[in-house]
Structures are given as structure tokens and as C-alpha cells.
Amino acid sequence: MQMKERENIAVLGPAGTFCDQALAQYRAKTGCKDQALYCASIEGVFHAVAEGCQRAVVPIENTLDGYVQVSLDGLLETKARITGELYVPVQFALVGNVDSAKDIRRLYVQFKAKGQCQKAIESLGDVPLMLTESNMESYQRAEEGREGEAAIIPQHMYEASRCRFKQPNVTDAQNNDTRFFVLEAQPGALQAGTAQKRKMALYVLDAADKPGTLFEILRQFAIHQINLAALMSRPTKKGMGTYNFYLEVSVDKAQLPVLQTTIRALKRDFTLKVLGEYAAL
């Protein structure tokens, strides 16, 4: 796949998704004029970056459903670096080609939306779930008009739906956001920027399976008084019981030199992949 780097920014499609809203927010904040390259899956977004797309916007975490595992894998497996983060409010509606919810016989729902609308899904009983790659795919399935089928769709698409049955506000909580990372294909020197609050994401790779490994990692952040915002283990996929550690740290701009000292200390004992230094846009 060949593409002109300066013209494309990869994003989960089709147009109208929450990812598309994140892209619109990024453009509004930065003046970016890159053409959207809509991909069918999050894996496809990372593949586009690997194949020459200069930038990308990917979901990384949701208030209700936690981290997006496929994005965590993509960050590890590609050279793209994180340059910023965005927050998009996320709410859902239920629509269907039925007269009432009790008539629903099949429900389409995006794989991350499923964890954000558990109460609504459980209220439907044993209705079969059909997981989709994007919320717009769920929307399009519902719009096909097949009797008995329904979908959980973005709230902002609610009014446009032609389905007979419509139920707004089926998200498990009113305060629900998805955090997105802005990625750039070419790794380079970290830039401090102007924001006072900064973050860094990194992987500790192939951490030894022995007592005290995690303590030694955390000790460096404690010694240097660096706030650890996230920590999770991810399978290396090389064998059962072998893990990498994903971390995010948060610092004031003045602490950046101390953060770099901490990273150098960790590199003496561990293999690191620094994914980027960034701030909210």
C-alpha cells in the first residue's frame, strides 16, 4: 500500500464514528489539513502507519471499559510515537427494526461499546450479540432494515436513524469519555512543548519472571518522585507466563529532566520502548 505521507491521517472508519469526532477535534486544535484515511479496524490504522501514513488517531482508553487492548498491542508492534491525547464524550442509543425492545432478535454492538452499555444489553435477555469493528458498522447494520435486528449506535446518530424503535441514553453512566492518542509515524526527539502537564508512555520489555522485578521498576519512579498514572502487564506472545509492562507517567514540565534521569536508570537494568512524550491537546 503506497500513500503520500503528508496527505493522510489514519483513523478507524467509516466517517461518523467517535474516532472521526476525535479527528475533527484534532484538526480544530492544530489546523491539520491531512486527508482522513478511514480504516476498517484499529489494526488497519496501525498497518496504515507502518505502510507510510504519517499520522493516526487511535482510541486508547474508555472511562467505563478501560484500555483498548488492540491499541496497546499496536503501540508495541509499530514505530509510531505518541504526540498528543484527546478526550471525546461518548454516549449511545439503542435502535431497532422492531416495535419494542422485547421484539429484538439480534443485536449489533461494537466490541468496546459492549462494555459501556452492559445494563441495556442485559435487559434484552438472551438476545444474540454480533460484535462489530466500529459503531458506524453497527449503525449501518441497523439501517439495512432487517426485521428483528437492532444495534447500539452513537447517540449523535440517533435522530438520523430510520429504525422504528429508538431508545436514547443507554450508556451505563452519563460521565463517559474515550481518550485517544495522536500518533506520528517517524520517531524522533521528544519535544517539551508548552503544556505544563506532560505524560510519557513506555513499555518495559521481556521483564524477567523473578521475585522483585516489578518492585525494581516501581522503585525508580518512587525514588525520583515521578507519578505513575497507569501500569499493566501485557503478554509477550512468546510463551505462557511471559509479560511486558505498559506504563504511563505524569509530570510537571519542570520535572522533565528528572523523568529522563529515571528512564536512563531503568535502561541500565531493563529493555525499554518509549512510546512518546505528550500532553492533552
List the helices and strands and how they pair.
Layout: E1 8-12, H1 18-30, E2 35-39, H2 42-50, E3 55-62, E4 66-67, H3 69-77, E5 81-89, E6 92-96, E7 106-110, H4 118-123, E8 129-132, H5 135-143, E9 149-154, E10 165-167, E11 177-184, E12 197-205, H6 213-223, E13 227-235, E14 243-252, H7 256-267, E15 271-278
Parallel strand pairs: 1-2, 1-3, 7-8, 7-9
Antiparallel strand pairs: 3-4, 3-11, 5-11, 6-9, 6-10, 12-14, 12-15, 13-14
* Percent helix range: 10-25%
Distance between the termini: 30 Å
Q: What overall geometry do the principal axes of the alpha carbons give? A: globular
Number of helices: 7
**Chain-averaged pLDDT:** 91
As a whole number of angstroms, the C-alpha radius of gyration is 21 Å
List segments where confidence is low: pLDDT < 50 over at least 5 consecutive residues.
Answer: 1-6
- What order do the helices and strands follow? EHEHEEHEEEHEHEEEEHEEHE
Biggest beta-sheet profile? 6 strands, mixed
